[in-house]
Amino acid sequence: MNKFRTQNTVRPTPSVVRKAIFDILQDVEDKTFIDLYAGKGFVGIEALKRGAREVIFVEKDPVLCIFIKNTLQKKKLSDRAKVYNSDAVEFLIHSSQKYDIIFADPPYESGELERLFKILEKKNIVKENGVLILQHYKNESLREKLKTLKIHKCYRYGDTLLTVYRRQE
Predict the structure, then answer these.
(1) Residue 34: CB atoms within 10 Å
(2) pTM, rounded to two decimals
């Protein structure tokens, strides 16, 4: 089995892809950023380092939540971060907030993208000039539109794709 598709292991976002995410976003300063399926939190931590106003980490593995909290403390970034030990979709169902940037990196080929799409079809959780970035396996199919969001661009890095959705008005 391909190491990228093993569902029960953490697959940290490679540094080249992490760099690409922030090259795509360009400016995260003073933005609210949510890191869904946060894993070890590397993407959200990078957003904090680049000046995000607040980063919300959502990770269902309690051990990884502790790892993220410890890393935030060591790097003195805890004051602008919140860590939730929760299923990503359940978190969004109960969230009343809108976000500038939503980054989601669900386990590859796990069915999580479809669960995410269902909630994004129902709820408008991306701010007016906001963006949704999905990191996914190259063979996973995506929806062209999600409520007010539409695919803007797609970037490929080996077997990994970054698909960017933006609001359409």
Answers:
(1) 28
(2) 0.89
β-bridge partners, 57: 35, 83
- How many angstroms separate the Cα of 2 from the Cα of each of 11, 16, 18, 21, 159? 12, 20, 21, 24, 10
Joined tokens for residue 100 = 């500038």
Answer yes or no: is pLDDT of 81 > 90. Answer: yes
Q: Which long-range contacts (CB under 8 A, 24 or more apart) does 64-67 make?
A: 64/10, 64/38, 64/39, 64/40, 67/40, 67/41
pLDDT band, residue 10 (cuts 50/70/90): low
Host H or E run for residue 162: strand 160-167
Contact of 148 with 166, CB cutoff 8 Å? no
Distance CA 72, CA 18 (A): 18
- Cβ atoms 89, 107 nearer than 8 A: no
